[in-house]
TrEMBL record:
Listed name of the protein: S1 motif domain-containing protein
One matching Pfam family: WHD_CvfB
InterPro entries: CvfB_fam (IPR014464), CvfB_S1_2nd (IPR048588), CvfB_S1_3rd (IPR048587), CvfB_S1_st (IPR039566), CvfB_WH (IPR040764), NA-bd_OB-fold (IPR012340), S1_domain (IPR003029), WH-like_DNA-bd_sf (IPR036388)
Stretches assigned to the S1 motif domain: 152-212
PROSITE patterns: S1
Family designation: Belongs to the CvfB family.
Signal peptide: none
UniProt source species: Bacillus suaedaesalsae
Length: 285
């Protein structure tokens, strides 16, 4: 039985002007000239990958795909079609769609061109070949458990799953990590490569990670954010170290503790002062 999405051994059945037909003795499928590697002849057995062309017809190729319905690998995102989905390159002439149904609800966290996804292939109810994101059990099967020595190190990896309260990362070390929404200032895209800091190693070998800088690193960044915000308002803002945490989070996307550290740095440097619920540039005195 000839099946899309699989590499199969078929017999070269007959020749036509534009290539050959290969067969399993029950069905046949076209092997175009451009999809042939090397030389072939009638009655020879060849390994081919089966897919559908843009008109829905079966096509075979001797090019080896990166992924199949039975195998997973990292593949490049090569196109984005809003409302429809994203296209991945699997090493054949046709790019494969990952449907919007299998992507995050909000398109701003969809993969962009150049991002990578860990995928296999699947066929929909109409037999159309689609990309399929790897589920959690597949990611866990190839993961490497982290040890306590991973605590507080920086890791690089790619986001492989997004949920309402955070994002999952698969690191270069093979760790699976979770980034809670409180540990980021902006939600990373699915497939995006990021650098995070391990803030906890769990008993099962997975980690919790953060995209927020360490306290001493973040203070300079936070101070700059506050200073630039004040500049945009003519050197004054209706926030000070006693402002409500939720107001600080909404305006600056930082915790109250981080805000106070950054504001304290600016005050220590003599750049700002506070008065009756406001903070001002010292030059305004």
């Amino acid at each position: 039985m000839i099946e899309a999405g699989k590499v199969q051994t078929l017999q070269v059945y007959r020749q036509v002007d534009f290539g050959y037909y290969v067969s399993d003795e029950v069905e046949e499928v076209l092997l175009p000239k451009k999809e042939i590697i090397g030389e072939i002849q009638l009655d020879q057995e060849v390994e081919v990958f089966i897919y559908h062309d843009h008109e829905g017809r079966w096509i075979s190729t001797m090019k080896t795909p990166t992924i199949t319905v039975d195998t997973y690998d990292w593949v490049d995102v090569v196109g984005v079609n809003p409302g429809l989905g994203v296209f991945i390159n699997i090493g054949i002439s046709k790019d494969i769609l990952i449907s919007s149904d299998d992507l995050p609800l909000f398109e701003e966290v969809w993969p962009q061109v150049g991002d990578k996804l860990y995928c296999s292939l699947k066929c929909d109810k109409n037999g159309r070949l689609l990309g399929k994101l790897a589920p959690d059990p597949v990611m866990k099967e190839m993961a490497t458990p982290a040890t306590r020595s991973a605590y507080n190190i920086n890791v690089k990896g790619r986001i492989y799953r997004t949920v309402k309260v955070g994002s999952y990362i698969f690191t270069e070390e093979g760790f699976i990590g979770f980034i809670h929404e409180s540990q980021r200032r902006q939600e990373p895209r699915l497939g995006e490569e990021i650098e995070a800091r391990v803030i906890d190693v769990k008993e099962d070998g997975t980690v919790n990670a953060s995209l927020l800088p360490r306290g001493h690193e973040g203070m300079d960044i936070d101070s700059k954010v506050i200073y630039e915000y004040m500049e945009s308002r003519g050197g004054a803002m209706p926030f000070w170290d006693k402002s409500a945490p939720e107001d600080i989070q909404e305006q600056f996307e930082m915790s109250k503790a981080g805000f106070k550290r950054a504001l304290g740095k600016l005050m220590k440097e003599g750049k700002v002062y506070q008065e009756e619920g406001w903070t001002y540039f010292s030059s305004r005195k």
